[in-house]
Design goal:
- The protein is an alpha+beta fold.
- It folds into three domains: 30 residues; 138 residues, Roll (2,3-Dihydroxybiphenyl 1,2-Dioxygenase, domain 1), CATH 3.10.180; 147 residues, 2,3-Dihydroxybiphenyl 1,2-Dioxygenase, domain 1.
- Helix content is 25%, strand content 35%.
- The strands form two sheets. Strands 1, 2, 3, 4, 14, 15, 16, 17 and 18 form a nine-stranded mixed beta sheet that branches.
- It is globular.
């Protein structure tokens, strides 16, 4: 009996150690992406874009640097680049604008649609939708939606949300959004006299939600925060896609804006990301994810469905740049992700 008790005790100790190791592994895994640091896009004229985001949408420029050299070429996967990078803040969130002084990329195709799988936007929260829309009209923005839409009561997860799509000077899609009581982050309903409050999320069109969840949730450790099924004339006019029926999934890191999947269940004719897309093309967006170890992320990606754009991890010596190490990669649909280590 004594021997059996000792054996059982040993087994319990072994199980406890295994449990602790698995717990530590799961904790490390969950923390692989700690922060959605910024959402970036490639622009053709930095001064024009900074003026647009600053004067129309009240972003504040916090840095503006010009870079070139082998490590930046490695980071972006573009040979011979000279790049100007500006970071702008709205509330607690940051966008990053990149202009390629050399080599210049291609413009956004005139016929691109909201259900094409290279589609991405940022959702800017507004205190008052009608006032925000009027401000945009005063600045003669280009519509992407018919006009502001209020999602109906039958869409329980999204009921009462008001939203509108429009375009920046290069044709990037942007969204303004207003949450009713009980929806969205409570901080969006704090008392303020500001009209534009911050960035709630960046939305990307995906071909298959389950495949994207395996990548963003299971591989990178983001948390699934909510789901909805959106359809009807309001959603069609918001996206400007006839017959639109979307499965929407929202994911979050520990902090920063969310990442929202838009899977078009109908229509299913959205075009894939052009295979020859490069970071200097104006349809290029990149979501910057902060991690304790970019090398660890690179190893995980090599065994998953993502693929590297950078030939390896770039080492950034310039103290004026936003991070010290990083690389660019693509998710299963081709959307660009920039993994960085501060």
């Amino acid at each position: 009996m004594r021997q059996e008790a000792i054996s059982n005790r040993r087994n319990l100790i072994v199980l406890a150690l295994v449990g602790a190791l698995l717990g530590a592994w799961n904790t490390a895994f969950a923390q692989i992406v700690q922060l959605v640091d910024a959402v970036g896009m490639t622009v053709s004229d930095m001064d024009r874009s900074v003026e647009f985001f600053s004067k129309v949408l009240t972003f504040e420029k916090i840095s503006d640097v010009e870079v070139h050299g082998a490590e930046y070429e490695k980071l972006q996967g573009v040979f011979g680049l000279r790049m100007r990078v500006a970071r702008l803040r709205l509330g607690a969130e940051i966008i990053e604008l990149s202009q390629y002084l050399a080599p210049e990329g291609r413009p956004i195709p005139a016929d691109w649609r909201s259900n094409d799988r290279w589609f991405q936007h940022i959702a800017i929260v507004v205190r008052d939708m009608d006032a925000a829309y009027q401000r945009l009209r005063q600045h003669k923005i280009r519509h992407a939606s018919t006009g502001p839409q209020t999602l109906p009561a039958n869409l329980k997860a999204a009921a009462g949300i008001r939203a509108f799509y429009f375009k920046d000077p290069d044709g990037h899609n942007l969204e303004i959004i207003n949450f009713p009581q009980g929806k969205g982050d409570p901080r969006w309903r704090q008392e303020t006299d500001k009209l534009f409050l911050g960035i709630d999320h960046t939305a990307i069109v995906v071909g298959n939600t389950q495949r994207s969840l395996k990548f963003y949730r299971d591989l990178l450790g983001l948390t699934l925060a909510g789901e909805s099924m959106n359809y009807g004339v309001e959603q069609e006019r918001l996206n400007n896609v006839a017959g639109a029926r979307l499965r929407i999934s929202g994911l979050r890191a520990r902090s920063g804006p969310g990442v929202e999947f838009l899977e078009y269940l109908a229509p299913r004719d959205g075009r894939p990301m052009p295979k020859d897309s490069r970071a200097n093309d104006l349809w290029h967006w990149q979501t910057t994810l902060s991690t304790p170890s970019v090398e660890a992320v690179a190893r995980r990606l090599n065994g998953g469905e993502g693929r590297m754009i950078s030939p390896g991890v770039a080492q950034i010596a310039d103290k004026n740049f936003a991070f010290t190490k990083g690389f660019l990669a693509r998710d299963p649909d081709g959307h660009s992700l920039q993994f960085v280590e501060k």
